[in-house]
């Protein structure tokens, strides 16, 4: 299967883009010194005021390019594509990395999920009193979020947090396979063609792709237990694969 052009560019590290040292809007935003446009919000304000504000997160669209910058132009022309020199700063500064992680948690909550372990990327459904089912339903009926998720996964990979991507993808796969949640044609298409390829680590991308193909073919029931075990295996051995291990 031929990969979409944006995925090919992402996996190749965007070889045709140049680094403009004069552009640093993403560093300034994550440093809490620049307000994103058109919402005129600091990153600290978005994190504190918009967490759990599902109507705002659904209705507004320009903020996502600021929370998750990538080296592609988005639909918000008031944002700036991520620059290579910005990647170095955003990955090296612990405070900025924590803010990126907090942005990820904000969007996971919006999708009815929560990050249980930042170390492994393990995700679970949001806990009561939040209603994961309502949030899952919103994700199903609001397909513009599928593009958002592609952006989120690409950004995490760019900013040194790529191990989180497998946690997200395998969570969704276990929900689809074991509980028939998030198991719609739209989500499956986005997951199989885009999301599952937003991982530059070739071994992890192959493992996840293989698990997805087996589930789609009816040859594998990917359970929550298998999901947790896979992430723990990677944490201990550095790989999803080790001698004698199955998917």
From TrEMBL:
Superkingdom, taxonomy of origin: Eukaryota
Pfam families linked: OGFr_N
Residues annotated as signal peptide: none
Domain Opioid growth factor receptor (OGFr) conserved residue range list: 24-208
Gene Ontology CC: membrane
MF terms (GO), sorted A to Z: opioid growth factor receptor activity
InterPro entries: OGF_rcpt, OGFr
Protein family (similarity comment): Belongs to the opioid growth factor receptor family.
Protein name: Opioid growth factor receptor (OGFr) conserved domain-containing protein
Organism (species): Amanita muscaria (strain Koide BX008)
């Amino acid at each position: 299967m031929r990969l979409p052009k944006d995925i090919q560019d992402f996996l190749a590290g965007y070889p045709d883009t140049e680094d403009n040292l004069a552009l640093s809007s993403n560093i300034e935003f994550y440093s809490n010194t620049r307000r994103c446009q058109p919402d005129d919000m600091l990153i600290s304000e978005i994190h504190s005021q918009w967490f759990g504000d599902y109507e705002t997160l659904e209705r507004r669209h320009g903020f996502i390019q600021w929370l998750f910058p990538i080296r592609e132009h988005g639909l918000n022309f008031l944002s700036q594509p991520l620059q290579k020199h910005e990647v170095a700063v955003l990955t090296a500064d612990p405070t900025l990395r924590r803010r990126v992680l907090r942005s990820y948690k904000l969007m996971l909550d919006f999708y009815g999920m929560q990050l249980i372990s930042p170390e492994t990327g393990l995700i679970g459904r949001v806990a009561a009193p939040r209603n994961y089912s309502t949030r899952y339903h919103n994700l199903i009926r609001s397909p513009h979020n599928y593009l958002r998720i592609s952006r989120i996964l690409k950004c995490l990979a760019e900013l040194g947090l790529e191990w989180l991507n497998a946690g997200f993808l395998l969570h969704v796969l276990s929900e689809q396979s074991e509980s028939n949640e998030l198991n719609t044609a739209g989500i499956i298409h986005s997951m199989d063609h885009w999301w599952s390829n937003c991982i530059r680590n070739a071994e992890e991308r192959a493992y996840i792709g293989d698990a997805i193909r087996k589930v789609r073919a009816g040859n594998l029931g990917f359970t929550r237990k298998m999901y947790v075990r896979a992430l723990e295996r990677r944490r201990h051995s550095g790989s999803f694969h080790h001698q004698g291990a199955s998917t």
